[in-house]
Structures are given as structure tokens and as C-alpha cells.
Amino acid sequence: MIEFLKAALFGIVEGITEWLPISSTGHMILLDEFVKLEVSPEFWEMFLVVIQLGAILAVVVLFWDEIWPFGNYGKGKHFRPVKTTGFLSYCKKDIWVMWFKIIVACLPAAVVGLLFDEFFESLFYNGVCVALALILFGIGFIIIENRNKNAAIKIHSLSEITYETAFIIGLFQLIAAIFPGTSRSGATILGALLIGVSRKVAAEFTFFLAIPVMLGASLLKIVKFGFTFTGNELMILITGMTTAFIVSVVIIRFLMGYIKKHDFKVFGWYRIILGIVVLLYFGMAGR
């Protein structure tokens, strides 16, 4: 029972930190210092990634009409149906186009991740590197939001994102893939804001971009671990994923409401404070 409660705690932290631009990695590293699951190192490595599937499911459920490219259109949606007959009449053209753009945005991180994932993890997955990434991107949020006060927003809807814009956002996601603590959502939102995307669109595109990225990473970890789960391991994984899903639903709704009236500077300050805490902790621990 204690291990299930620990898994639920990790799910809560994952559900909160995966979508807010504050780095799930930084929080998981800190939590792992004080709360350790009694599992094998191989399962733990897989658990940290696959628990994200619960967070992904929250995006799928909340944004189903915006991401499913088949069937009837929901009321009030800005996507336009294809005016044709046969199979294509059941397709949502704009949503297909959006998915092609998401694929383009995924390419940089996918290529580098497949080739160098373990190398970068061994090089940068430590407290000091995570803390520095937290601080630097926290400063970045504050600077860019201050700059954007008087800057014109160029992109107000998902359909206005071009393939070039999607690729640039993907390059920022690549930074997060290389440097733990950057925050995948933080990096992509920051990159989108930098090139004139509105906060709402930046957040939505980041959510949708997470679906193939997290799904692919989770499948790779499961294949690497194998499908030989013990009953206890399977229940721990399901507990973490379920908790991450429930918390993610709440956090995503909160964030979409929050950014209608507020900017991201508060997350920048939070990142800086957390980064300093991580630096001090690992500095005093001599690691």
C-alpha cells in the first residue's frame, strides 16, 4: 500500500509539472531524493517516462474535437470540413494539416533523441545541470514576457502556424530533449512566444505536440524494459498513470483559464527559485 501511495504522489507531481512550464524533471529529481519507490532501477527508469501516458490521455480527452481528424465537427470549432464526397468527406482538413505541422515540429527532437538520448542523459542528467536549466529558462520567460508587453502578436490561431513556425518551435523542444530541467512545455512555449505566437495558441500547440513525443518515448521505454511486469509493478504503474491523468485534467483547465488574463512571468520566478533550491541542495550534499 505504501508503494502505491508513493506512485500516486509521483503521478500528482507529473500531472502538475508536465503542463506547467516549470520542469517535471527538476521536480521528479527532488521528489526522488525524499520518496523512493522500492523497485528495480530498470523499472524506475521506465516508470518515470511511461507515467506520462496518463498526462497524454488528459490532452486527448480535453481536446478531442481539436485533434481527431475524422467525423463530424463540433459546434463553434474553427476547423472547416472538406467539401467533397466519399472518404474525404469524413476528414477534417485543417486538423490533418495541423498534424503534419506537429510531425515537422517533432523531427528535430525525434532524430536527436533516437541517436543520442542515452549519451545526453548520462552527460546532463544531474542536479547541477537541471538547476541551471531551470534558472536560465526562468530568466528567459521573464525577459520575453517583458518584451512582449508592447509587441504585436502575429499568430492568434493554430491554423496560422506555418510549417516554418512549427519547425522553429520544434528546435526549442530539441533544447529540452538535450538538457533536463529545461521543461519540454517550457521550451516550446518560450520559443513560440519569442516568434510572436499568442499564449493560448502556444500552450495548445505544446499540448498537442506532447502526444506523439510522449507516446513515442513511452513505447521505446516499454520495449526496452520488456513486458515482463510483476503484478506489483503493473499496479504501481497504473496508479501513477491514473493519478497523472486526473491531475493533468485539472491543471490543463487551470492553465488555459490562467493565461487568458496573466502572463508566464510567475512561472519564470518559480523556476529561478526552484533552480536555486536544487543547486543548494545538491551543493550541500556534495553531488
From TrEMBL:
It is a multi-pass membrane protein. It is found in: Cell membrane. Its EC number is 3.6.1.27. InterPro entries: UppP. Coiled coil: none annotated. Keywords: Antibiotic resistance, Cell membrane, Cell shape, Cell wall biogenesis/degradation, Hydrolase, Membrane, Peptidoglycan synthesis, Transmembrane, Transmembrane helix. Pfam families: BacA. It catalyses: di-trans,octa-cis-undecaprenyl diphosphate + H2O = di-trans,octa-cis-undecaprenyl phosphate + phosphate + H(+). GO terms for biological process: cell wall organization; peptidoglycan biosynthetic process; regulation of cell shape; response to antibiotic. The chain crosses the membrane at residues 43-64, 96-116, 122-144, 165-182, 202-222, 234-256, 268-286. It is an enzyme of class 3 (hydrolase). One of its GO terms (cellular component) is plasma membrane. Catalyzes the dephosphorylation of undecaprenyl diphosphate (UPP). Confers resistance to bacitracin. Belongs to the UppP family. HAMAP family: Undec_diphosphatase. PANTHER family: UNDECAPRENYL-DIPHOSPHATASE (PTHR30622). Bacitracin is thought to be involved in the inhibition of peptidoglycan synthesis by sequestering undecaprenyl diphosphate, thereby reducing the pool of lipid carrier available. This is Undecaprenyl-diphosphatase. It comes from Parablautia intestinalis. The gene is uppP.
